Amino acid sequence: MAKQHTLTFEHIPPFPEERDRDEPFAAHVIVETPAWTRHKFALNHEYGVIAATATLRPQLRWPCDFGFVPQTKEDDGDPIDVALLIDEPTFPSCLVFARIIGTIGMVKDDVHNDRLVAVMLPEKSSLVSTDWVRELSDLPEGLVAGLETFLRTYPHDGTAKVELTGRRSAAEGHEHIRASHKRWKKGQ
User: Fold this and answer.
1) pLDDT digit string (tens) for 42-57?
2) Which of 27, 84, 96, 168 is an S-S bond match for 65, by CB 3.0 to 4.6 Å?
3) How far is C-alpha 57 from the geometric centre of its chain's CA atoms?
4) Three-state secondary-structure class, residue 141
């Protein structure tokens, strides 16, 4: 009997359809791990569920929601990772309409594994504290440096070698999604 998967995000495009022409760096983000938890969650492709995959050391918590852009594929075989700055944590499998504001370059165990950074784009009738953020440089330096410190130190087994390779613009992050989406399409 063929396996049936109960959860997949492959039908969700990486970019929203012409929802808002004023948002040139808009993207869909699927949340895997919400902020302030010690648990790490990830999509389990074999079973089609979001699974708990690790627990961070007691002194660490995820500083923001983390997830991925659907229909993308990176060098490590996974979708593009996203650190999502949002006023309140969401939940695993939540779809968020987001604005890409930049990239934190990262090499993990000699494989490029950059993290896009995004903020939530609310409906027109609501307000979030990051409405005005367009680039990483719009954020307080301490917030971005804290995120970089977390990315460099969180690997749960302590054996991963992580090197940060710099910050890049929103436009470069958005182009990264386009290239990764092309790789995903080739694999279909």
Assistant:
1) 998 888 899 999 999 8
2) 84
3) 21
4) helix
Domain 26-186 has CATH 3.40.50.2000: no
- Domain ranges for the chain: 26-186
Mean pLDDT of 113-139: 88
Question: What is the rounded CA–CA span in Å between residue 8 and residue 44?
Answer: 9
Closest residue by Cα to residue 114 from 159, 71, 147, 158 = 147
Alpha-carbon torsion, ordered 64, 70, 72, 77, to 10 deg? 70
Quote the CA–CA distance of 23 and 98 in Å, as a whole number: 9
Least Cα distance to 99 among 178, 25, 31 occurs for 25
**pLDDT tens, residue by residue, 100-111:** 999 999 998 888
What is the C-alpha to C-alpha distance for residues 117 and 102, in angstroms, rounded to an integer? 5
* Prediction pTM value: 0.92
Beta strands in 16-170 (DSSP E): 26-33, 39-44, 49-55, 65-68, 81-85, 95-108, 111-112, 115-120, 162-168
Tokens of 57: 């050391």
Q: Which of 72, 75, 91, 76 is nearest to 15 (CA)?
A: 72
**From CA 159, how far away is CA 177, in angstroms rounded?**
28
Assign 69 to helix, strand or coil. coil
